[in-house]
C-alpha cells in the first residue's frame, strides 16, 4: 500500500477523467434507450469537467489554469443542463409520436 | 522547524490521497454500473452516485465553488430532469432493453483502445504524476519563520508587510487555497480580480460575453424545450374528427 503515502498528481485526475469519458462513450454506443444515451453524454461531460479542474488546481502545477479552468467548468455544467433539457424534450416528443423510446426504431430519416 | 522536518522524515499516510482513491473508486465503479446495466432506473440511480463522487473529487482538487455547483445543478437539477424522463417513458417494454452481443463487443473494443491510449497519455509526463505542493508550502513557511526569527535576533522590527506575508504562507500551508467564489463572480461580470496585481495585464480578460451568451442560450433552450415537449392537442383533435 505504498501508493497511499505518496501525494497524488495531475495524472490521477486525468486517468479518472479518461475513465469516465470512455464509460460515457461505451454507454452512448451500446444503449438502445434514448435516455441511456443522454446519461452517457452526462458521463462524458463529467470527464471533461474533471480534466479542467485538474489542470486548474494549484495543488498539482505551479502554472495552472487557475480561475479560467473553474469558469470553463461552470459553463460546461450550465451547457450540460441546457442540452439535457432539449434532448429530453426531443425524446419525449419521439415517445409521444412513436410510442417507443428505442433509438433503433427511429429510422424515419434514414432515407 | 525541527518538528516539521521530523514529520516530513517519517512516512505517514497521506489522507488526501486516501480520500482521492475512495471517491475515485465510487465515481468509476458507478460509471461502470451505468454502462453495464440494462435497467434504465438503475442506470439513473448509479449516475447520481457517480456525479456526487465526481463533485467530491472537485472538492479535493480545491475547486469548492465548482464542486458545490456540480452538486446543486447536476445532481440536484439535471439528473432530476433525466429521472422525470425515465418515469414518463418507463413502460414495461422499455425498462430493460437488451443490447446485441455484437454491439457490446464493438463498443468495448473501441472503448478499451481509447482508454489505453488516454491512460498512457495521462501518465506520459513525469512532473504530473505526483505533487510536492504540501511539502513545498510547509518548507516555505518554515524558512520564512526562520528568517523572521533571525531578523528579530538582529534587532530589526517586523513590519506589517512581513506579517501579511507570514499569514499568507500560513494559509497556504494550512489548507491550500483561498475561497474563490468572489473572484468567480467578478470574472463573470468582466473583472479579473485574481490578475489585477499584474501591471502587464489590464485585468479585463473576463467572461462577460460568454456569460451573456450562455444566459441567452439557456433562455432559448427553455423556450425550445417547452415548445418541443408541449402537449399536441391539435393532432388528437384531428384524429378524433
Number of helical stretches of at least 4 residues of chain A: 3
Do you know the CATH architecture of chain A? Orthogonal Bundle
* Helix and strand run of chain A: HHH
**Main pleated sheet of chain A:** none
> What's the assembly state of these chains?
heterodimer
Helix content of chain B: over 70%
- State the largest interface: A-B, 76 and 95 residues
CATH first level of one domain in chain B: which class?
Mainly Alpha
Shape of chain B: extended
Strand content of chain A: under 5%
CATH architecture of one domain in chain B: Up-down Bundle
CATH superfamily of one domain in chain B: NADH-ubiquinone/plastoquinone oxidoreductase chain 6, subunit NuoJ
Low-pLDDT runs of chain B: 236-241
**Rg over C-alpha atoms of chain B, rounded to the nearest angstrom:** 26 Å
Shape of chain A: elongated
CATH C-level class of chain A: Mainly Alpha
User: Which structural category do the helix and sheet elements of chain B fall into?
Assistant: mainly alpha
Biggest sheet architecture of chain B = none
E-strand count of chain B? 0
Summarize, please.
Chain A is mostly helical. Chain A has helices spanning 10-30, 34-56, 67-98.
Please explain how this structure is put together.
The complex is a heterodimer of chains A (111) and B (241). By secondary structure, chain A is an all-alpha fold. Chain A has one domain: Helix Hairpins (Orthogonal Bundle), CATH 1.10.287. Helices cover 68% and strands 0% of the residues of chain A. In chain A, helix 1 packs antiparallel against helix 2 (34-56) and helix 2 (34-56) packs antiparallel against helix 3. The model of chain A has no long low-confidence stretch (mean pLDDT 88). By secondary structure, chain B is mainly alpha-helical. Among the domains of chain B are: 11-98, NADH-ubiquinone/plastoquinone oxidoreductase chain 6, subunit NuoJ (Four Helix Bundle (Hemerythrin (Met), subunit A), Up-down Bundle), CATH 1.20.120.1200; 101-129. Chain B has helices at 2-9, 15-36, 40-60, 64-89, 92-95, 101-122, 133-153, 160-174, 181-188, 208-228, 233-240. In chain B, helix 2 (15-36) packs antiparallel against helix 3 (40-60), helix 3 packs antiparallel against helix 4 (64-89) and helix 7 (133-153) packs antiparallel against helix 8 (160-174). The radius of gyration of chain B is 26 Å and the shape is extended. At the A-B interface, helix 1, helix 2 and helix 3 of A face helix 2, helix 3, helix 4, helix 6 and helix 7 of B.
